[in-house]
Amino acid sequence: MADMRDTFEFLKGVAANNNREWFNAHKAEYVELRKAWENDIARLINLMTKQDESMRGVRVNDCVYRIYRDVRFSLDKSPYKTYFSAVLGKKGRKCTQAACYLHIEPGNCGLHAGIWWPESDILARLRSEIDANIDEFKAILANPDFSSRFTFYGDKLKKVPRGYSKDNPNAEYIKMKEYLCLKKVDDDYFFCDDWVDKVADDFSYVSDFNKFLNYIFEED
């Protein structure tokens, strides 16, 4: 396992020198750090598969993102991302269900979970599921094991979507366009030998949250 301080210092260098000349001069360092990152994610996958059977068979390459940015449709032409990240769930990055997402960036690290910008038909089913089982959903959010670690959030509509009364008592949840939670962590959360175990342990507390959101997929 590499010292994550080296990874953070490298990412700070990318942020300060986001150009191909600097990156190519530090390419050997990147390759070494990337390999260490992939080894750590492999360990994390093994630990999380014990919590989530749907991750069985998921490979490291399925989960980790490239550092190279797609700048074709972006005003920001910086060629490199300033973070390492990975999706931990069924099919990895191609997961369309609720999953976990690890983001490592100097000054902006986080453990995320839930479902990001679902397709319209999936979102409609999620809203219906939450409306019909609101007590169970609220109990998950209120569970101290969850709420003491993670903050529930997500982008939402200004008005209740078509098909629901504006007086619906669950309107604030029905208006949501995604269902997410986040644990913000400081950089030094990763400056230890057991950070992979810590991440796996923290993600274990979003299991009920993700399982609830994934009920609709079990119906298929």
Task: Tell me the fraction of residues in β-strands, as a range.
Answer: 5-15%
Give the count of helical stretches. Answer: 11
Task: Give the helices and strands as they follow along the chain.
Answer: HHHHEEEHHHEHEHHH
Class by SSE composition: alpha+beta
Helical residues, percent: 40-55%
Weakly predicted, low-confidence segments: none
Straight-line distance between termini: 41 Å
Task: Please list the strands of the largest sheet in the order they lie side by side.
Answer: 1-2-3-5-4
Question: What kind of sheet is the major sheet?
Answer: 5 strands, antiparallel
As a whole number of angstroms, the C-alpha radius of gyration is: 19 Å
Shape: globular
Supply the key terms.
220 residues; alpha+beta; five-stranded antiparallel β-sheet; 11 helices; globular
